[in-house]
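Take a look at my tokenised protein here and describe the backbone shape.
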Amino acid sequence: MKASEYRERTFEELRHMADDLKQDVFNLRFQHATGQLDDVSRITQVKRDLARVKTLVREHELNIRQLVSAQDSQADG
């Protein structure tokens, strides 16, 4: 999923997605260790998605998203 698609989610949805992605990374690493994982690149993909979601969660916590949109409107006007 692209970062723009994640930005459309609510804070609670993002937190839930982060928990799900953490579990996915754990499961993929376990499958890789036991030799059951065919597509090893999936681990990297899920880890990157987790990083994107964590970044957006942190932006929500710091209210950066609101500040950025406020600065954009000041620059336009």
DSSP finds four helices and no strands in the chain.
